[in-house]
Specification:
Blueprint lengths: L8 E6 L4 H10 L4 E6 L2 H13 L4 E5 L5 H14 L1 E7 L10 H19 L8 E5 L25 H4 L7 H18 L1 H5 L4 E7 L2 E2 L1 H6 L4 H9 L6 E2 H12 L10 E4 L4 H6 L3
Parallel strand pairs: 1-2, 1-4, 2-3, 4-5, 5-6, 6-9, 7-8
Bound molecules: nicotinamide-adenine-dinucleotide (NAD).
The site of nicotinamide-adenine-dinucleotide has 30 residues, from helix 1, helix 4 and helix 8.
Amino acid sequence: MERSADKGQVAVITGGGGGMGRAIARRLGKRQVLLLADSDRDKLDAAALDLVALGLEVETLVGDVTDPPFVANLVRVTESLGSLRTLVHAAGLSPSMAPGRRILEVNLVGTALVERAFLPLAIKRTVGIFIASQAGHVPPFGDSRDALLDNPLQPGFLDALASEAAQGADAYSISKRGVIRYCARRTMDWAARSARIMTISPGMIRTPMTEFEFPRQPLMKAMLDLTPMKRWGSAEDIAALVDYIASDEASFLTGTDILIDGGVTPLFAARGR
Ligand SMILES: NC(=O)c1ccc[n+]([C@@H]2O[C@H](COP(=O)([O-])OP(=O)(O)OC[C@H]3O[C@@H](n4cnc5c(N)ncnc54)[C@H](O)[C@@H]3O)[C@@H](O)[C@H]2O)c1
């Protein structure tokens, strides 16, 4: 197993029991101690077994990223393990997994809670990487209403968006647009600590989430057919990008979003025009 000087530094991965989370953990775990968090204990245990079998150092914590005491505990455990090198926030719900309000809460409010809680741990070379989606680049939401998304921790935030985000698919794309905007707006605060913050917007990636969602969302088949690269993305495609963003080679990369979608988003956004 390849080891480097990063040992003793911690990679925290929320959604660590999920498809992307596990693939990202396999990469980052080669250089950093892993702390995986997920609301699903069985998935988390399976991921930990897999990673330990590879000789990686793994701690796990079961809980919900929308629960502030859980997030605070995650921060405490991170501090007990060492210094924060990489935070990957991959916990999320897809359109058919919950009512719209809950999707917005997990995907966007959860992002803001995790970002705020971990910022004090950021030091030189720390990178926060938040998983958004290509759905955040596609209407229904428009520029004129974007300001509604910008303060997810404000009281009444979920109520203000209740009608916009009543449907799961709308809630999903609104939440991911909010993630992109929110994280970009946090760039200065991370930079003040010589740290970086990024979002990634994946397209069609084959994971347990898409196994669940694909039969329920006919638009996903249309999107796959439109994808110029003519294939699904893999969790490893995402992990490779995370690995790069988290590295010192990407030290001038912050405050922006990277689409990793096989080229489909502009075609999908323009369909029917
Ligand atoms: N798979 C895709 O095609 C795709 C595309 C674009 C964006 N994304 C985003 O990428 C991220 C990772 O997705 P994935 O494909 O690995 O999905 P996944 O379902 O395999 O993993 C997501 C994990 O998040 C966990 N989770 C859900 N709600 C949680 C909560 N409240 N607190 C803690 N953990 C919670 C789940 O238990 C699951 O293990 C998600 O944010 C998703 O929206 C996925």
